Amino acid sequence: MTASPPVSGPRAGTALPPVAFATESVLAWQRVTSSSFVPLVVDDLSDGRFAGNIRGRVVDDVFFSRLRVTPHEVHRTRALIDASERLFYKITLMLEGTGELVQDNRRALMLPGSISVYDTARPYDLRFADPVDAVVIMFPRDLIDASPDHVRAITAISLGPEECLTRLVTPLLTEISSDFASLEGPAAARVVRTAVELISALLSTAALSRTTEGDREHLSLMLRIREHILDNLGDSELNPDNIARAAYISTRHLHGLFHQQGTTVSAWIREQRIEAIRRELGDPMHAHRPIAEIATSWGYPDASHFSRTFRQQVGMAPSAFRRAALEKTRRGESSNSVSA
Fold first, then answer.
1. 213-330 — its CATH code?
2. Rounded to two decimals, what is the model's pTM?
3. pLDDT per residue over 286-305, tens digit each?
4. Model confidence at 134, in pLDDT bands (50, 70, 90)?
5. If you write DSSP's letter for every residue of 255-266 in order, what string do you get?
6. What pairs with residue 23 in β-bridges?
């Protein structure tokens, strides 16, 4: 059974069909997993009895999948990374079987009930000596609070069920992967936001507990800054100066913190605002609200400035995006991303 998978991972602003694929060919499995996630090399460890099954859906650039596959190895090489269009984080929740994840000169034993994180921007290897049943989530790196440097501290580390947030995340991810109907219709975006927020909290907490004191202070500061920004996105006067004052640091220090993450304060604020507006424009619960009212509520009181900014970020006018997004919801499509 097949359905067209996304190509080289979900692309921002694209509507993608569900993935449903089963095969007894390791080459076919490599082709489909490479197109569904990121380019990979797969080696068969099953003595010629290979079998793999993958189901999944993309919602808001987040790929939720459930894999059942016989023993195999997965390799993400530097050459494959250089050929990739976009870079993501991936987490694996093991349901059955065991595995080993190697990245950044660390090895993590993947046991049932554990969650492991890895970064597609750097080489990694996965080895599954037993048949495995696992939930794999792939999402853009900027969706979570922890910076790439802090996530590096927890790659190839197994977050076991003894950790409180692992116990909170596991039931939701298991339920989603058991019935992808939860990723259909108007509630899909809310389910995805809840899942990503829990994943972000899990990874940020794990990074805080596994970094040096200096790095811990740095991560804690960044989390406080991002939380302050997100809590005040609707304030049109939000700017680097008042953000810095709220964090008790200089504006120069604030700019330096965001520069280390490859962005700027203003760009990050803009991205968060447009993402929030995009979600509400595509939500039938907000269909009665004028676009200008939604934009104002997220810090854009100037309609023309908002329209230009939205078009630059999303690739289409707000009104066109809303029509397309609501029409997709009416048709019951699983992804509420809209292509320009």
1. 1.10.10.60
2. 0.75
3. 899 999 999 999 999 999 99
4. very high
5. HHHHHHTTS-HH
6. 52
